[in-house]
């Protein structure tokens, strides 16, 4: 606790009724709203350069869409799971420079069919590989991702596996599974809602590096100097459970920025960095900023998409599957037809994986509208139905035990995320500079940046990732620092 907080308490005790608000310190350089990857990077970069920073986080924890929880015999990741690519990744560098081992995870599929038989693993992995590679060479004209992949895959099958052309059912069900796999990558509801053309760039290096038993949260502990009993950063104050409800900024004038919290506290600073998700901006922008945002930014907030990707994670008494493996599920048309409408959602879970951080846990992957719906179902229904699914696909030669515990993500219901991450939708061709506009600062009359924007959605090429979010936080911190200070 910092000096002035103590002073405030003393003053309050002495009896002045509204002293709490009026004695709030006004001496911060920057207020950072939100402590996810972008906010923690921005706050720690500024604090390391000697700036006085206040970070306000609405939830009771640091991390945002990174959420490591103790579960099973270790930890599981309810949000981000992997470091996607290593070269030039601030996240990977942070781990390596601090001697925290991170491990690559092999995500090739073991394939199970809905009648309990083993699928053709080599073939399915080859087809998946083809689909993922073909999108790296998009067509000249904009097109929905699914349409493009389907067309390319049919050509490939024609050339390389003509014998499959008779297996229309298999092709249809493989495409359905591929759709789900893409939806999990993109947090989309359907692969035809995603544009095949995108500015997204993969970082080189292994695409699925795991923090395993350390947990992704270690990234934040290192940045904030709380790892290994570190004592934090001297010029950074952190307030959890502090929901920001209003940001007043000087438009056509100069002066400080005022940040109002739900509990009535008001803080001022020279400037503020807002890192809330696109989902939160969509829901709140009209009453979060005073004066309101410029129309250009509002249009972008409305046109861009943030989708849903969710996990259901079970724990078992002991390990019964190898850790760090992926099991893909492919339905047979006739099995799907037998399902009741109520069970349709279980066909939108494309597989299960065993996380690297806990040997006894198992993760089911869902996305889109089904993901949203699963967030609202009763716990016991979700648990029972995913177990039925698991036994249908993997129970033929194994006795699958009952789970002891379940945890599921609620990234859409969570008022402080309202979605999982952004993707480029079919409107991106009309708004090619959308992410840059979203990230533009609001300036005062003298041209000084007053409200700055960071977060996954504002990164031009690495959006939807932890490293992209971190880069965006660094970008905005640098906007406020002479480069020699870092
Ligand atoms: C299920 C899932 C899996 C993912 N998997 C991966 C992966 O494997 N690899 C990868 O690189 N990325 C992955 N991602 C994406 C990655 O997690 C995000 O891109 C990244 O964490 C976003 O960071 P951010 O700082 O932009 O936003 P956030 O993490 O959302 O941070 C914003 C913060 O602002 C806070 N906030 C919101 N409103 C307010 C308010 N009014 N007042 C104060 N605070 C507020 C929020 O509580 C939050 O802490 C995944 C995401 C999800 C949901
Ligand atoms: C990491 O390990 C190396 C070699 O053992 C050591 O020199 C270095 O100080 C360590 N770094 C940190 C941050 O612990
Ligand atoms: C089950 O075991 C039989 C006999 O060992 C084997 O042929 C079959 O592929 C196995 N099925 C699965 C789903 O593992
Ligand atoms: C951190 O502090 C705890 C409690 O004092 C101690 O048990 C632990 O060994 C310390 N860890 C490190 C890495 O210093
Ligand atoms: C603020 O400035 C803009 C552009 O400089 C101008 O168009 C607008 O009328 C001004 N608004 C007010 C309230 O002064
Ligand atoms: C399981 O975890 C261990 C480390 O705990 C690792 O060496 C091994 O490769 C993992 N297995 C798989 C299949 O990833």
User: How much of the sequence is in beta strands?
Assistant: 15-25%
Distance between the termini: 26 Å
Number of helices: 15
Proper CATH architecture of the domain at 2-66 and 212-305 and 423-485: 3-Layer(bba) Sandwich
Low-confidence stretches: 1-24
- Output mean pLDDT: 93
Give a list of the ligands: flavin-adenine dinucleotide, 2-acetamido-2-deoxy-beta-D-glucopyranose
Largest sheet: 9 strands, mixed
Structural class determined from secondary elements? alpha/beta
Percent helix, as a range, is: 25-40%
Looking at the structure, what is the overall shape? Answer: globular
CATH topology of the domain at 2-66 and 212-305 and 423-485: FAD/NAD(P)-binding domain
Draw up the topology in text:
Layout: H1 3-13, H2 19-22, E1 28-33, H3 37-48, E2 53-56, E3 68-71, E4 74-77, E5 82-83, H4 90-97, E6 103-104, E7 109-113, H5 121-134, H6 145-160, H7 168-186, E8 209-210, H8 218-223, E9 236-239, E10 244-248, E11 257-261, E12 266-274, H9 278-288, E13 289-290, H10 295-303, E14 305-307, E15 309-315, E16 326-330, H11 333-337, E17 351-353, E18 361-367, H12 368-376, H13 379-394, E19 405-408, E20 421-423, H14 434-439, E21 442-443, E22 449-453, H15 466-479
Parallel strand pairs: 1-2, 1-12, 2-9, 7-16, 10-13, 12-22
Antiparallel strand pairs: 3-4, 5-8, 6-8, 10-11, 11-12, 14-20, 15-18, 15-19, 16-17, 17-18, 21-22
Helix pairs in contact: 3-15, 5-6
């Amino acid at each position: 606790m910092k000096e002035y907080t103590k002073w405030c308490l003393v003053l309050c005790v002495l009896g002045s009724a509204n002293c709490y608000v009026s004695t709030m310190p006004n001496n911060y350089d920057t207020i950072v709203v939100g402590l996810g990857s972008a906010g923690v990077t921005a706050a720690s970069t500024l604090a390391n350069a000697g700036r006085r920073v206040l970070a306000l986080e609405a939830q009771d924890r640091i991390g945002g869409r990174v959420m490591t929880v103790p579960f099973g015999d270790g930890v599981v990741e309810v949000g981000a799971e992997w470091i996607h690519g290593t070269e030039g990744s601030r996240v990977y560098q942070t781990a390596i420079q601090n001697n925290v081992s991170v491990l690559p995870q092999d995500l090739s599929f073991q394939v199970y069919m809905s009648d309990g038989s083993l699928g053709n693993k080599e073939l399915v992995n080859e087809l998946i590989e083809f689909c993922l590679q073909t999108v790296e060479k998009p067509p000249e004209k904009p097109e929905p991702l699914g349409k493009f992949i389907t067309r390319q895959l049919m050509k490939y099958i024609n050339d390389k596996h003509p014998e499959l052309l008779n297996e229309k059912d298999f092709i249809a069900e493989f495409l359905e599974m591929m759709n789900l796999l893409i939806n999990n990558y993109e947090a989309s509801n359907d692969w035809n809602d995603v544009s095949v053309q995108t500015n997204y760039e993969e970082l080189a290096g292994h695409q699925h590096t795991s923090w395993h038993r350390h947990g992704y949260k270690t990234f934040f502990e290192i940045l904030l100097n709380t790892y290994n009993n570190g004592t934090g950063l001297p010029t950074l104050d952190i307030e959890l459970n502090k929901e920001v409800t209003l940001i007043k900024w000087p438009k056509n004038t100069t002066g400080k920025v005022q940040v109002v919290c739900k509990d009535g506290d008001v803080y001022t600073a020279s400037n503020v960095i807002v890192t809330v998700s696109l989902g939160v901006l969509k829901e709140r922008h009209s009453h979060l900023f005073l004066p309101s945002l410029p129309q250009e930014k509002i249009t972008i907030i409305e046109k861009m998409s943030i989708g849903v990707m969710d996990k259901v994670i079970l724990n078992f008494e002991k390990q019964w599957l190898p850790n760090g493996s992926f099991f893909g599920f492919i339905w047979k048309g006739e099995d799907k037809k037998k399902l009741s409408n109520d069970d349709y959602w279980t066909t939108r879970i494309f597989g299960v994986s065993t996380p690297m951080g806990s040997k006894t846990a198992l993760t089911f992957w869902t996305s889109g509208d089904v993901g949203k719906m699963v967030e609202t179902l009763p716990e016991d229904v979700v648990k029972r139905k995913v177990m039925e699914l698991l036994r249908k696909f993997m129970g033929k030669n194994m006795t699958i035990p009952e789970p002891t515990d379940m945890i599921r993500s609620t990234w859409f219901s969570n008022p402080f995320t309202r979605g999982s991450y952004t993707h480029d939708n079919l409107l991106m061709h009309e708004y090619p500079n959308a992410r840059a506009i979203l990230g533009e600062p609001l300036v005062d009359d003298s041209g000084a940046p007053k409200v700055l924007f960071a977060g996954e959605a504002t990164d031009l090429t690495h959006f939807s990732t932890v490293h992209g979010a971190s880069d965006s936080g660094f970008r905005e911190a640098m906007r406020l620092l002479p480069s020699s200070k870092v």
